[in-house]
């Protein structure tokens, strides 16, 4: 190994941004030790906790990440929050290169008058409940029968799928049984989706629009404010997909979904609870007052939301399509770099760019690496014991699979503490067999 080959690389965050970057660095530097830290005991970030339960095929990308963690010198260190369990400076002192991939995801909130009323929800709270995000006391918000969804991007369409699907659509998924049952005990009947933009410039992927058409028992209407220009092939495709939805005539209609494009909500009215949504703009012929008992905002993410880091004062984390370098030896990738936009494949492309940049910085001598700084084994013993390893995670994973409700692939643990208890149980058994081994993962329990 020469001086221009790093020995120890740390990636903070095990979502797609972190995993793809680590994978690309591993491909180039086969001898380097790579440790991926995550504040949670479970790896894979929003793949596990954001992607909708009825999209299990999307979650399958984790299988390729699993293979990395099973190879030598590629380590998962869950249950370690950088910034609170260990400082970034401490971490940097024992790793040649640190890549921050801590993501950022907090819903942008509605700001129209009346947004404070009961019945106004953010899509993130629903996604969190359905995905069993490990926060104690995370109930499924109460959703009524007349729902207005504000936004028409992919997360808004995730909401529409969720609001219109039935229990049988979740067979072989990992949806939270309680959250789903709570909603399906009284599902929505009328759903109005409001988009400020016309169809041509709305954010939804065409495939996501088409997918809605496969849900039986749902009737759709579509109002649009202006048509796509003839050379806007994507806009035209999206318009065609919505026209196909509007042409569906279900045998029996369980729910009606109205898409209104070019509609701007100006006020939510109600005494304590939502009663209606008022529009300041609407396409010709559309009503400007929509009776509703629930409003779900899905209007994108707050770009300034810091996520779970505590070192934000030191660096400029404004979204950037430029270099991932924050300074020599310190880089960023994923949503932390680009802002909260783009699906999983966009993170792959971006991670390859960042990895290339790191490799060029090191190999050109622009950012040289020195003597072996020690890496994971140079961290305090208490922190190493606290870390949930990949084999610990496999134990958690197996327990979730074993606990699966009928026709589910797993039932996720509800809290971080339960996951750590499972690891603790495993370790206690190991140390009973070998009394020299005393380890504890419970020294920090994340909320
Ligand atoms: C509701 C929703 C649905 C989505 N659905 C899809 C979909 O169907 N298909 C698709 O392709 N894309 C989807 N996406 C987009 C996709 O999830 C993102 O592109 C991707 O997850 C971003 O990756 P990331 O690694 O930057 O961030 P994340 O996935 O958020 O990963 C960040 C990781 O960092 C960890 N972390 C944070 N702070 C710290 C810290 N201080 N110390 C240690 N670890 C830390 C977190 O625990 C997390 O595991 C969806 C996104 C959302 C929000």
UniProtKB/TrEMBL annotation:
Domain FAD/NAD(P)-binding: residue ranges: 8-197
SUPFAM superfamilies named among the record's database cross-references: Nucleotide-binding domain
Domain of life: Bacteria
Keywords, comma-separated and alphabetical: FAD, Flavoprotein, NADP, Oxidoreductase
Catalytic activity line of the entry: 2 reduced [2Fe-2S]-[ferredoxin] + NADP(+) + H(+) = 2 oxidized [2Fe-2S]-[ferredoxin] + NADPH
Cofactor needs: FAD
Class of this enzyme: oxidoreductase
EC id: 1.18.1.2
Name of the featured protein: ferredoxin--NADP(+) reductase
Source organism of this protein record: Brevibacterium spongiae
Lineage of source species: Bacteria, Bacillati, Actinomycetota, Actinomycetes, Micrococcales
């Amino acid at each position: 190994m020469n001086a221009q080959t790093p020995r120890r690389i740390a990636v903070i965050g095990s979502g797609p941004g972190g995993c793809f970057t680590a994978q690309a660095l591993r491909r180039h530097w086969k001898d380097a030790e790579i440790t991926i830290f995550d504040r949670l005991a479970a790896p894979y970030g929003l793949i596990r906790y954001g992607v909708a339960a009825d999209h299990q095929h999307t979650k399958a990308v984790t299988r390729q990440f699993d293979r990395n963690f099973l190879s030598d010198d590629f380590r998962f260190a869950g249950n370690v929050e950088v910034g609170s369990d260990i400082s970034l400076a401490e971490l940097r002192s024992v790793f040649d290169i640190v890549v921050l991939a801590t993501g950022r995801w907090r819903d942008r909130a509605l700001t129209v008058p009346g947004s404070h009323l009961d019945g106004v929800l953010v899509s993130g709270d629903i996604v969190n409940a359905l995905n069993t995000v490990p926060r104690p006391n995370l109930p499924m918000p109460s959703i009524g029968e007349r729902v207005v969804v504000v936004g028409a991007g992919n997360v808004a369409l995730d909401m529409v799928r969720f609001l219109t699907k039935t229990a049988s659509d979740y067979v072989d998924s990992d949806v939270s049984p309680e959250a789903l049952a709570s909603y399906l005990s009284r599902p929505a009947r009328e759903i109005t989706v409001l988009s400020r933009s016309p169809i041509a410039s709305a954010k939804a992927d065409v495939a996501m629009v088409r997918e809605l058409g496969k849900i039986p028992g749902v009737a759709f209407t579509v109002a649009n404010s202006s048509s796509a220009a003839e050379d806007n092939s994507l806009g035209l495709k999206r318009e065609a997909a919505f026209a196909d939805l509007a042409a569906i005539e279900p045998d029996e209609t369980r729910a009606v979904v109205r898409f209104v494009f070019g509609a701007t909500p100006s006020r939510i009215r109600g005494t304590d609870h939502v009663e209606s949504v008022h529009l300041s703009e609407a396409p010709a012929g559309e009503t400007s007052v929509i009776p509703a008992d629930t409003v779900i905002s899905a209007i994108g993410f707050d770009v300034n939301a810091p996520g779970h880091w505590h070192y934000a004062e030191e660096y400029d984390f404004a979204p950037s399509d430029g270099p991932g370098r924050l300074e020599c030896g310190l880089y960023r990738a994923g949503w932390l770099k680009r802002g909260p936009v783009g699906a999983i494949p966009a993170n792959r492309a971006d991670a390859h760019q960042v990895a290339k940049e790191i490799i060029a910085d090191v190999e050109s001598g622009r950012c040289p690496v020195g003597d072996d700084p020690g890496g994971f084994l140079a961290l305090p013993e208490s922190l190493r014991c606290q870390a949930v390893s990949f084999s610990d995670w496999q134990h958690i994973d197996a327990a979730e699979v074993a606990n699966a409700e009928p026709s589910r692939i797993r039932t996720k643990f509800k809290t971080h503490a339960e996951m750590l208890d499972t690891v603790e149980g495993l370790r206690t058994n190991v140390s009973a067999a070998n009394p020299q081994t005393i380890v504890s993962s419970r020294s920090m329990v994340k909320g």
